[in-house]
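Why do we bother with holo predictions? Because pocket geometry can differ from the apo form. Keep that in mind while you read this record for FO1.
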Amino acid sequence: MTPAPRVVVLAGGVGGSRFVLGMRTALRERGIDDTAAALTVVVNTGDDLWLSGVRLQPDVDSITYALAGVNDAQRGWGRAGDTERVNEELRAWGAGWPWFTLGDLDLGTHLARTGWLREGLAPSQVLERMAARWDLGARLLPMTDAEVDTVVTVREGDGIRSMHFQEWWTRFRATLEPVRFDNPGISSAVPAPGVLEAIAEADVVLLAPSNPVVSIGPILSVPGIRDALRAGRAPVVGLSPVIGGRVVRGMADVCLAAIGVETSASAVAEHYGSRGADGLLDAWLIAEEDEPLAAAVAGLGIRSLVTPLWMTDAARSAALAEAALVTAGL
Ligand code: FO1
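The structure, written out:
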């Protein structure tokens, strides 16, 4: 029995959740029972925000709920079958954001988390406590315990203004042209406990097909994480979030344009860079539709694997995760 591979996945919310579920299944199908010992997920916390006095961690909650099987799979966030009685009352009070829905069960999460934060627990300790409620089959770590919410600066008329990422995303649906994304305070943040150790001990580190700018980007911006990936012995394997010139979810193309990256599988690979050229990637998984780009990816010094990338169901997600492990030689 070969020892279980130690897999680290850097992930955002919705695309990340699907891939992480697929990886858990792929490891189980390899006969690994204790997948939590084999699979560590480093989660983006740039989407986090304070609202109505509670701390929300959307990507952390999306992945936790998905692994627990209690997520609202249609919306991609929040709890299955949730209700909105408290939300209606918050609206009646004019509290919070009228365009942002806080479900009743979801509020339970935010209240529990906020209470523990106020008692002095760090976000990573809160996550460990919350994750223990379910048998998630993976270890979840926030990228950092510091508050580094993403701020989007947008062009509006002939001026520019900044807003929390969540307002840009949920109120304006990313329709205001972004000119830059920042995570104030991130330069003095440190990786959450366990993150650097997990990367150092990993047999493979995977960049999930999440938004390269607002999901994977903040993780790589936490001081020490990029260097740990480059210094580590584990191959870094990325999965393209772009298929056939289109982003799979969300408004990643708008984000990519803001940082001058064209929406193509090869351009995102170039954005992450090859390990040999001061970048991160050893390998890059692209969709069959993008097979013509394989040569361009190879030209970057990055091994590419053409494989089905659409995670249309659990089996496809597991097959993709298995392909990523094989690409890493596992
Ligand atoms: N997204 C929306 O488009 N509208 C909402 O009202 C909304 C509420 C919400 C509440 C909790 C939570 O964890 C996520 C929520 N999201 C909502 C999704 C959120 O904006 C995204 O999950 C990520 O931050 C982007 O990936």
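The first helix runs from residue 14 to 29.
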